[in-house]
Prior knowledge:
This protein is α+β, with helices and mostly antiparallel strands.
Amino acid sequence: MLKTGKEHLESLRDGRIVYLGSERVDDVTAHPAFRHAAQTVAALYDMKADPANQETMTYEEDGSRHSIYYLRAKTRDDLQRRMVGHRKIADMTYGMFGRSPDHVASFVTGMAMKADELKPPCGHPDNLLAYYRHVRDHDIYTVYAVLPPQAARDPEFYLRQNLPVPTLRVVREEDDGVVISGMKMLATGAVLANEIWIGNVIPLAPDQKKEAITCAIPCSAPGLTLWSRKSMERMARSEFDAPLAYRYDETDSMVMCENVKVPWERVFVHDDAILSREIYFKTPSHCFGNHQSNVRYWSKMRLLLGLCSKVAHATGADQTPAVRETLGKMSAVEGVIAGMVNGQINAYESWPEGYACFNRRMMYAALEWCTQNYSLFIDQLRELCGGGVFQMPADSSVMEDEHLVQQFTTYFQTPQLDALSRMKLFKLAWDMVGSEFAGRHLQYEKFYAGASFIVRGHAYRETSWGEFHQIVEDLMAGYSAPGIPQGQAKVSAKTAA
């Protein structure tokens, strides 16, 4: 069943508790801190439900049509269909919604392709498959919180102070489920979503069994509160003055649980610290979810490339050979991520048995590349903007005064652009490079997948080192030291041993 935007907005009026500082927000669809972002998500649902997009955005299984990101790929064409669906969603938000509804859905779908990795007694594969069908059949928007709070990474501190360790954990088991308390981060998009997947993507010590819970809970679960960071949408005076923050602030929240009950059927891993992390990497889960992030990043690069060129044209700098060289360089950068995304499909893996997976090594290479290059792209746009962003009036209210607007349209125009169009362009550019919203995205892209050593660790794990060693050995086997017949040195070495 495909949800409409109206149905999704209605689903957000479920009694969830969101705190914005000390202010309690009961209806995120109407609150000035979240309402436009909620409408953005609703527009995504309407786009998917539009019959004109049926072939691109949906597939048929079990007698019904479902969102394309729940498709368990069996062929290269299935992977291509998934990518095109991700791309259409990402293009609608210009790559600004990292946790759009297709993100965590892809993690769950990938895990459902190899559910037998959730080995009993601590793993519950039947629960996982039932949850996959639940979110697929009801078009659920799920986000995740899969990291402990930073403060919890030194548990000895809390023990010495006789304080509870703040990270989320199982505090007791009951006949009908487990009870969890504590904090988890970072639930990006949670105020706009239906459910939260709780898990662990960084290693736990083997004795951290009670923290190893993997489960799913509604955002309205009794005892659950979402502590949102500062809303950037709320600060946007108008869409003209802050066009990205006004509509695309997906928000980030800390998840606070106080004795939240989780039914056994929504528990997927319990009491196994190692398994709770391995389920993402021994299945296509982590690869499917992060392929979506690669595609979403690509859409953002396309916006940035267009902005670089438009700003250069607006100032007349495009006539300068050095600027044209810079634009060519940026075009090549956008082409790199495009190639990486498509390479993951063309070099796909026939894994697990009966299914197809994006090339994991290429996906992690792209993930590493993305974290290292976003700030470079932003700096290029910043240089092209120069001081132009500071020459604009404070905001669009200047257009409301008859005398000021006459001066503005006369003196702020350039040979390339009229004053209003110029201000509109530079307001957009500033929301990409200099506003608080822009700063959040700079930090987000740099650390989206964790610290650099974590991303590189994924790449190391997925590399077939024996294949590369063999290349070196094959080359060296083709020649020998001067005066020693080929192969003799190896025999002599064995004899000496």
